[in-house]
């Protein structure tokens, strides 16, 4: 008797007194359509959902309300200095119309030291692409997006993503990027977990990510 037959015979003997069970009838599972098969407004909704899954704060605004949404993202923050207005880092090329009026603006540039970035309460930026299926924001550090350190050192990152920048998946995102430019891919606020799965945020970057999606507001239904 082969080893295979010996194992099967042993299994048959072990199951000899087990009653027969009626077969389970498979119930068809209705899965949502892949992101690339959805209308664009549903793709943006999926992006909203997936970004929020990463514990980021997400707000939606029509273009006329974008500035108010950015201002609201800063409300309730306590300045590092303890008094006075919030110190907000603004990279070159960020739209002036979206910068709140009641903050101290720190204009970023290569001559701004990391210690100065650490004294900022937050940073504003735009983005290059938003990926719906993964809830990822991609910066290529062009106009309005700042250098890599600018969006890693401050404790709060408020990122403005236009609805028309949101693509269904990673292949579409890669196709939209310039391969000659270094990129930063952001999926939620910075976080890590130890062996006990205790989540700690703000270790490798901003503790709070607030994404403002500018475009058509979600259907209230």
UniProtKB/TrEMBL annotation:
It holds the Pfam family LUD_dom. It comes from the Bacteria. Residues 116-214 form the LUD domain. PANTHER family: LACTATE UTILIZATION PROTEIN C (PTHR43682:SF1). This is LUD domain-containing protein.
């Amino acid at each position: 008797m082969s080893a295979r037959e010996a194992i099967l015979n042993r299994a048959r003997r072990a199951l000899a007194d087990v009653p027969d069970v009626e077969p389970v009838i498979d119930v068809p599972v209705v899965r949502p359509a892949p992101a690339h098969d959805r209308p664009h407004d549903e793709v943006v909704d999926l992006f909203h959902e997936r970004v929020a899954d990463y514990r980021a704060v997400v707000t939606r605004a029509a273009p006329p309300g974008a500035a108010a949404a950015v201002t609201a993202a800063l409300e309730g923050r306590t300045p590092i200095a303890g008094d006075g207005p919030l110190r907000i880092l603004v990279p070159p090329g960020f739209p002036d119309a979206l910068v709140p009026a009641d903050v101290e603006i720190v204009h970023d540039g290569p001559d701004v030291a990391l210690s100065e970035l650490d004294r900022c309460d937050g940073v504003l930026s735009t983005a290059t692409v938003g990926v719906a299926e993964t809830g990822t924001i991609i910066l290529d550090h062009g106009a309005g997006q700042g250098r890599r350190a600018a969006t890693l050192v401050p404790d709060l990152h408020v990122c403005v993503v236009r609805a028309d920048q949101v693509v269904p998946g990673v292949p579409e995102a890669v196709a939209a990027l310039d391969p000659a430019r270094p990129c930063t891919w952001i999926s939620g606020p910075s976080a890590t977990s130890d062996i006990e799965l205790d989540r700690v945020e703000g270790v490798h970057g901003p503790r709070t990510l607030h994404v403002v999606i500018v475009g058509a507001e979600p259907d209230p239904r």
